[in-house]
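Appendix B, Record 12. Input sequence as logged:
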Amino acid sequence: MNRLRHLSALKTALGRAPVVAILGPRQVGKTTLARELARGRKGPLKHFDLEDPENLRQLTDATLALRDLRGLVILDEIQRRPELFPYLRVLADRRPAPARFLVLGSASPEMLRQSSESLAGRIHHHELTPLRLDETGITRADRLWLRGGFPLAFLARSDAASAAWRREFILTYLERDVPQLGTRVPAETLHRFWIMLAHYHGQVWNASEFARSFGMGDMTVRRYLDLLTSLFLVRQLPPWHENLGKRLVKSPKVYIKDSGLLHSLLGIEDRDALLRHPKLGASWEGFALGEVETRLGVRRGESYFYGTYGGAELDLLVVRGQRRLGFEFKRSVEPELTKSMRIALADLKLERLDVIHAGEQTYPMAERVRAVALSRLLQDLKPL
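Logged structural output:
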């Protein structure tokens, strides 16, 4: 698949930082991307797979094993040996630097804490997302939406094969991978929580309501939510806070990050079932929202939603410097301008508001408001 956007970002990062981390869930393509990056570089290369017992034995004395290496050193599945981060700090401080380190791993709270403390100012984190439209092609948008962007799910020979892969992925993640990351939550409990969370996809998080439905305390469900967020499986979209003289919603919206996993958690296996499901609109919103952020090149801390207790809301607010862009997502072919959109346009002083829709045309709806077809997103929406 075409992953040139990620390759370009990683090449730039390796030119600036002695340690670069590719983070993301299992099976998202981290190892494949690292190998492709390595093929394009000159000089020595050493690849350690920390799930390989032989490679682990070689790193028994990490300082001795790593200090004389040159070129690019890849440490795959770094979450299995977070104690390596202090050694990497020592190696990263050498001048001149004989090696660059590329570390790959499924995110975990412990791994992120270790890297942040030991390598502050020395490490660049890069999140590898599931496939996006610029990588699959706009003509495959419906397949990408249904199956999600995990490469093996997207490329499966049929929708049924893709659904089977995703079911197995969910179970394996819960039963094997989560415990390996040092988290002690029963797989069945976390599975039930994840399924329930899928039914809240696109809604504002209400810990008390969720805890009552799940039969646990507020702090417990919050801990589960943060766990799945730290694993890049769930996304919390924060609310926009500004003194507008209105009562603003202060809790985040929650989304299952990959549409294919969302559909599997909801029991959706084919397009017909998806089009009949009550979460159709919410699923399409989350999918389109991710595509808009990718197309704009949104960075961490630039995305919000806007909501007031008076009913005004905006699905996505992107803030970069003095620029403010608003987005609404409508699973319709002829979206209409609403009172809520007009209020958000005025309250937030938006540069413009784009209504992303399922039709085929992009056209103006009002001053500073236009309808943008998802099928034309790559042509009609320019990066920031």
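The first helix runs from residue 4 to 16.
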